[in-house]
Amino acid sequence: MSPKHVVFKKVSRDKSVAVYMAKRDFVDHCDFVDPVDGVIVIDPVQLKGKKVYVMLSCTFRYGRQDMDVMGVAFRRDLFLVTRQVYPELQDKEKLTHTKIQQKLLRKLGDNAFPFFFEFPDNLPCSVALQPGPTDVGKKCAVEFEVKAFCGENQDEKIDKQSSVRLSIRKIQFSPENSKLVPVADTTFEFLMSEKPLHVKLSLPKEIFYHGEPVKVNVEINNSSSRNIKDISVSVEQVTNVVLYSDDKYVKSVAKEETNDSVSSGTSLKKEYTLYPLLAHNKDRRGLALDGRLKHEDTNLASSSIVKQEVLKEVQGILVSYKVVVRMMASGEVSLEVPFRLMHPKPETAKEGESDDMVFEEFKRAYLKGVVYGDDDESPTEA
Length: 382
Known about the structure:
Layout: E1 5-11, E2 17-21, E3 25-28, E4 36-42, H1 44-47, E5 51-61, E6 68-69, E7 72-73, E8 75-86, H2 92-95, H3 99-108, E9 112-117, E10 127-129, E11 141-151, E12 163-172, E13 183-188, E14 197-202, E15 207-209, E16 214-222, E17 229-241, E18 247-257, E19 267-274, E20 288-290, E21 317-328, E22 332-342, E23 357-361
Parallel strand pairs: 1-23, 3-12, 15-22
Antiparallel strand pairs: 1-2, 2-4, 4-9, 5-8, 5-11, 6-7, 10-11, 10-20, 11-12, 13-14, 14-16, 16-19, 17-18, 17-21, 21-22
């Protein structure tokens, strides 16, 4: 028995427009990006002769919507395209690009119309900075949205009662073949000490998956006259906001502070284990997360993979990770190595021939006690 297709739907409040999509996450494979496709079902009686449009947008938001400095809003549309769905400008067959669209059109009848978008090659992935527990409103984020609405033309003011907004995510998975092994070693020389301190820091691999422990190997050969103490090892997230400014945020997301020491003339070789998890960093303002804010299905932001031909400034927010070892000699001594934190590439699911589908409301899992405004994915009636 072939598995049923899960299809997400969302209906406008006045029931004039409904959107059906087979997925919410779209993968950037570096050489191409999954297209955004779906089907819109209309109610001709509710439309009252109006046209139906669908819009795909990528927005970089830096600050709340009500923030304004010198008349410049901290918001920029990195990508925006609108297409008319009804009345159709082409035959349905020419606008139908995927098998799931074909199945939806058969299932949903004559008032169903397909839509299809392709991402340009230079857009960033979904990422957001976590607000503090008392913060309100939209914060710094790169967001993607599909919006369906009706009107006399695409430029008139959109009526919330007859529109549907669906937040989607653009994500990247880990490259399959990375054989790089991060290693750093250095020598520290001290005043009044004939011999140096040698420190080596290494990881077993370059790419770690979300939820996976990070094994850190530290080797210290202390030939100096100083005693080494207070050794700590941490994973630090480095977030660069590069569109409007060059702000940089460095935050420790996992740390082990030890009582380990290395007396003069001795050495230490030890493996430490760190767990960089969002669960250990709830409510920490400014932490970069994948996708939308305040949802249970998100995690620490994945490392950004910037394509060579793309300007970094267009990316909005860039995220990287590093492991840092620190210790006290006469002052602080530190050494760091970069690594990537990403999702593994999932196995490609085979698409069956069955037309059986399960329709689910288009919303993500919400955290209890969080109040969402009109701009969030509020539950809709079936």
